[in-house]
Amino acid sequence: MPGTEALGVDYADLDQVEASAKDILHPAVYDFFAGGAGDESALAANLASWRTIRLRPRVLRPAAHPDTSVTVLGSTLAAPIVIAPMGYQRLAHPDGERATAVAAARVGAAMTLSTYATTRLEDVRAAAPDGVQWFQTYILQDRGLTADLLQRAAASGFTAVLLTVDATVPGDRRRDRRHGYALPHADGIDLPNLGGVGLDAAYSSRLEADLGPDVIGWVREVSGLPVAVKGVLHPDDARVCVDAGAAGVVVSNHGGRQLDAAMASADALADVVNAVGDRADVLVDGGVRRGADVVRALALGARAVLVGRPVLWALAHDGEEGVTAMLTALIDGIGECLRMCGAPSATALGADVLARVR
Ligand SMILES: Cc1cc2nc3c(=O)[nH]c(=O)nc-3n(C[C@H](O)[C@H](O)[C@H](O)COP(=O)(O)O)c2cc1C
I need a labelling partner for 357 at 20 to 30 A (CA). Which of 48, 55, 78, 221 fits? Predict the structure, then answer.
């Protein structure tokens, strides 16, 4: 396994990895990956909010070798890390989603494959058959195609579904507008799970605009898999999702790419955890960049976190080795933070290590 600096960047310093990836990527691709909606205030809030949550470490508690493993949506992971669904990964590196899946499997994290993946879902499974992979679905206007994708995912060994509900209308991505909504058409890169449609599908809405809670049961029935609803910020919505059969909710504002005025996901987490209790797993994403952010999320009651853009920067930089190094650095950071908080395991963390319950 590569050391964090063996590959020319310090994978514990994700700002450095992003700056370096920016030099490598086509400007339109970098902006598509990095950008948020509007004037990017939700994007900024996600990053800033974690740092306002201060920890109150416990001492004189033996925690020299903390256990970072968790069970979430029925999958046991070596660390509470899930790679967020992000489309278009072959624009970051030719190995794309395959490399991400292999890296996740190497460190014992889960990987979520986006509907907008640039690799066939069966090929992702085949690349990392011992890893945990989840499938992210949108509800396409073509319900038959949506059902087909869910059934293919279940048949090939994906073990959970993330149903994304916060992108039924497209976000206003100004950076993409500046580039004329054009991603470079690299040879042979398309969206094979959607029948090989072109990359501009990112900008044309093929999604059902009006969804209700009944769609959760539909996804569960069609796939036969546990379903977590991604894109929940309101505790009442979280309750509705669980009542409708969701096994989990992902507290998320889509990485600041949808509603620019949305609250930071870190600020929404505690209320959602309170609303859901132990009826379902709560996950969170948006701006998670260091081990201490993961510990903050766990202390607030999340079962695991999703990590988005840093995966793309690491992938652009060094492919599978880069993603492995980035995840390794993140997991090392979790262990270090648990030790310093006197927590013997990721599941032993409670609100007592929070300086202020939010
Ligand atoms: C380039 C890119 C593509 C994304 N594609 C999807 C997608 O296909 N489906 C989805 O549910 N979320 C998608 N997201 C949102 C992520 O899953 C996740 O919510 C967000 O990136 C987390 O924030 P972070 O990047 O700050 O870690 C995408 C995000 C990015 C940056």
Answer: 78
Distance CA 326, CA 307 (A): 11
- Give distance in angstroms: CA of 63 to centre of ligand 1: 34
The CA 64 to ligand 1 mean position distance, Å, reads: 34
Phi, psi torsion values for 245, nearest 5 degrees: 110, 5
Task: Please indicate whether residue 254 is annotated as part of the active site.
Answer: yes
CA-based torsion, 337, 338, 339, 342: positive or negative: positive
Q: How far is the CA of 341 from the centre of ligand 1 (A)?
A: 30
List residues bridging with 195 in a β-sheet: none
Q: What is the pTM of this model?
A: 0.97
CATH architecture of the region 14-209+227-236+253-344: Alpha-Beta Barrel (3.20)
Q: What is the pLDDT of residues 87-115, one digit of tens each?
A: 999 999 999 999 999 999 999 999 999 99
Q: Mind listing the pLDDT tens digit for each residue in 256-265?
A: 999 999 999 9
Domain ranges within the chain, ordered by starting residue = 14-209+227-236+253-344
Ligand 1 touching residue 285 (CB < 6 A) = yes
**Percentage of the chain with pLDDT > 90?**
88
Residue nearest to atom 11 of ligand 1 (CA): 164
137 Cβ below 6 A of ligand 1: no
